[in-house]
Amino acid sequence: MTEYLLPENEQYKFEGGWIEMFGMENFMKPGSADYEKLRGLAYEYKTIDGYEEGKGYIVRQGPVIDAKKYGDIYYTLEEPKELDQDLPNKLLVWFAPFHEHTDLQAELRMFSRKENRWPSLMKHVASNTYILRLPDVGLHSGSFFQNTVLFQEYERQIQDLIQSIASIYKISHDRTVLYGASRGGTGAFIHGLIGRYKTVAIDPIMQSKLYDEKGLDLYLNFDFLPENFVGRLNELLDGSTQNADQIKIISASNLVNYTYLKALHLERFDLLNLDYRIYEPYDKDKAHGIFTTGTFPLALQYINSFLYQDDIKVEKTPIKINFSSWDVELPTTSRGFIFHIKDEGLEVTRTGYEADPDDRFRLKFKSKILFSTGKKYKVSIKVISSSTLSSIFVDSKEFYPRKDAQTYVYEVQVDKDSSEMKLYPETYQSGWNVEMLNVVIEEI
């Protein structure tokens, strides 16, 4: 049976759909009987979630959110549009910002509208990245992703969910990044410290209460959270084993949260004070919103830097091998093979990409020496490998090797001039690997 609630003093009357968008204002006045009704509902694990004309505000046991459920929390998971099985998987955890705080739909208060969940994010992050999006389901409009006396397992369930998704998709801890802005920035900051994750946060909210010009308590945390989060964050920072440069907190000295961020133990993380101009008439809430949305490009810079961090190697030494002595150019790339230039030679690996039955993958080389009609040539390929080579094709003719120690030797004669040579591996299974030390072509 549906439960309804009517305010004793409906100070703000709205017509039509406006009541859905602003109806929570009738319960946000501290000290009012209606404010205390919401506090009482929190103790019963209930919240306002909708409105029905002629009956009142709908009360539910927990929110209704269009998302998957894990324990007592909710989430959505966006998978990469194209997954390359030869690249490592990555995970970006997105914590919901604070939007639609006066809306009667709990999903909008806790998760925001879908268009505010950065739906284009997948287009801008590293390949093979899964995006885990989390609403803030504490209390009536979220508890900044923190435990309260009413939900003491909240933080643990978030940590468990992140670990579960990482385990399912074989994502390493070092390739997991937490991100959030505003309320989401607070969540990312706290959970990055709890789970020792790389973190990017834009102007995280540092106070549990926010009053508007009407004196309304927009966050509805009552007394379930401390007035500010400096103490909690410093406690987590003191116990952190992360390098400071793995935690990027982006703010500006003309924002309210900055003063609280400066009270944290700054040696334990990177506080980035951005020189940012806000040209609209100054309002602390609008300034915060303008900053969090206007700095998405900067956030992406650090997000992708962390996602790619373990895929990048800074090179300081020259290559020892002289490829100019080879009688072929370096091979052309394809989905079937990937090659890496090493100090001693060329490493070639068969990828996991499935070959079309009518298009067998091969490694294509362009010969520096023209294979001329009617002449004979010896092609010698010196390798270091436990895998073996198979035939080569020149002018659509197939030639098989004889092996001499570490060298595969092919005798080639063509019917028409050609400069293209195609090399076949022994097997087309993923992981076939060979390191070539030299390729020599001689006329015989």
For the structure shown, list the relevant keywords.
single chain, 444 residues, alpha+beta, Rossmann fold, Jelly Rolls, 2 domains, 6-stranded antiparallel β-sheet, 20% helix
Give helix % range.
10-25%
How many H/I helices? 9
Strand proportion, as a percent range, falls in 25-35%
Strand order of the largest sheet: 4-5-7-6-8-9-10-11
Notes on the structure:
The radius of gyration is 30 Å and the shape is elongated. The protein contains 9 helices and 21 strands. An 8-stranded mixed beta sheet has the order 4-5-7-6-8-9-10-11, with helices on both faces. It has a 6-stranded antiparallel beta sheet with strand order 12-13-21-15-19-18, with no helix packed on it. The chain folds into 2 domains: 65-311, Alpha/Beta hydrolase fold, catalytic domain (Rossmann fold), CATH 3.40.50.1820; 323-443, Jelly Rolls (Sandwich), CATH 2.60.120. The model has no long low-confidence stretch (mean pLDDT 91). Helices cover 20% and strands 27% of the residues. The chain is α+β, with helices and mostly antiparallel strands and 444 residues long. The relative contact order is 0.09.
